[in-house]
Specification:
Elements (H helix, E strand, L loop, with lengths): L16 H16 L2 H20 L17 H4 L1 H19 L8 H17 L10 H9 L3 H16 L23 E6 L3 E6 L11 E4 L17 H7 L4 E6 L11 H19 L4 E6 L1 H16 L4 E7 L6
Parallel strand pairs: 3-4, 3-5, 5-6
Antiparallel strand pairs: 1-2, 2-4
Length: 319
């Protein structure tokens, strides 16, 4: 069976709702930040700054906070004061939120915004305030700064200005990822159905269909040999099928939940036809699990019993 290659990601501008979300977040912060509470936090922060300056503050990073693991954050007086000032400021910012506000949604939005702001302002994010980065610059003769500048330019040109998490050139679907042998056995406008090659002398009569999230890739459950649910399934004699969703573009703006439910039903029909089984098992993950639950609700009303059992991972049904 031929190994499959995946389509490139669809890219485009941020949806216009991003501005609306930002306005809602700032509105939530205005509603849950009490002026009296904020004034109290400012006063406490000023007192803590005085103690930090005198070297009397005992504030220290959480032992689980990997950002401050370098010994210099404790042994170097200047670095220690920088970390303590940042932590005091972040605590004051978080403490200004009224956790008992009327609308819990406002509290959650404000907390999220504060966490993002605090994380972005961390001294570990800047070369001049990160002792570990300064030492690396000295040890490499400036090479670490050159690499960082090159990565920054690459992110601006190829990643929409967002920090890259991995070197994408090192991963190719079918070569470094998704290496379990399989082939596309059905293709529609919405999805492709992959059937994996058995690795046992015999297989079970009833197949399993994986329904992955529409916002992810099917191969996140087939990362590499030894770290692959797909590989494990076929090694246990399970006839395994996976849906690979199409990355929709602007021309697919009319797609909705019905579109994806119909696609899962079509995948079930094809898998049953190929294996000769009257029914199958489904594994829905994340948004794919939500889609599967909607599909099961439809089947219940239609008297369709082709799903013998359904399993779900990393998802919620009752919101």
């Amino acid at each position: 069976m031929a190994k499959r290659t995946d389509r490139p990601d669809a890219t485009g501008p941020l949806p216009p709702t991003s501005a609306i979300d930002a306005a809602e977040t700032f509105g939530a912060m205005a509603r849950v930040v009490d002026p009296t509470r904020l004034a109290r936090q400012v006063l406490e922060f000023q007192r803590e700054l005085w103690a930090i300056g005198l070297g009397d503050s005992e504030r220290a990073p959480d032992a689980r906070d990997w950002r401050f693991r370098d010994p210099a954050w404790e042994s170097n007086p200047a670095a220690r004061r920088v970390a303590q000032t940042y932590l005091a400021w972040a605590d004051a910012l978080a403490g200004s939120i009224d956790e008992n506000a009327d609308d819990w949604r406002d509290v959650e939005r404000a907390r999220f915004a504060v966490e993002m702001l605090s994380a972005a302002a961390a001294p570990t994010n800047q070369l001049w305030s990160n002792p570990a980065a300064i030492k690396e610059m000295i040890d490499t003769g400036g090479e670490s700064v050159r690499r960082g500048f090159r990565n920054w330019v690459d992110d601006l040109l190829r990643n929409g200005g967002m920090p890259g998490q991995v070197d994408r050139t090192r991963f190719n679907v079918g070569q470094d990822l998704a290496t379990t042998p399989g082939a596309v056995v059905y293709r529609s406008e919405v999805f492709e159905l992959i059937q994996y090659q058995p690795s046992t002398a015999s297989v079970r009569a009833r197949p399993t269909l994986l329904v992955p999230p529409q916002i992810n890739k099917y191969y996140f459950l087939d990362l590499a040999p030894g770290r692959s649910l797909t590989e494990y399934a076929v090694s246990r004699g399970i006839p395994f099928f996976t849906i690979s969703w199409r990355n929709p573009g602007p021309e697919h703006a009319d797609w909705n939940l019905d579109t994806y439910v119909e696609a899962v039903l079509q995948a079930i029909e094809v898998a049953c036809e190929i294996t000769g089984s009257d029914d199958l098992l489904t594994l829905g993950v994340c948004a794919g699990g939500i889609t599967t639950s909607a599909m099961l609700a439809y089947q219940a009303t239609a008297g369709d019993r082709r799903v013998a059992a359904a399993s779900f991972c990393v998802m919620q049904i009752d919101w």
